[in-house]
Amino acid sequence: MPEGHTIHRLAGRHRALFAGRAVAVSSPQGRFADGARRVDGRVLLDTSAHGKHLLHHYEGDVTLHVHLGLYGKFTDGDGAAPPPVGEVRLRMANAAHWLDLRGPTACELLDPLQVEALHARLGPDPLAEEDDGGVRAFTAVKRSDRPLMALLMDQSVVAGAGLIYVTEALFRAGLRPTVPGRRLTRRRWDAIWQDLRVLMRSGVAEGRIDTVRDLHTPEAMGRAPRVDRHGGEVYVYRRAGLPCLVCGTPVRTAELNARNAYWCPVCQATR
Question: In this structure, are 52 and 159 located in the same domain?
Answer without folding.
Answer: no
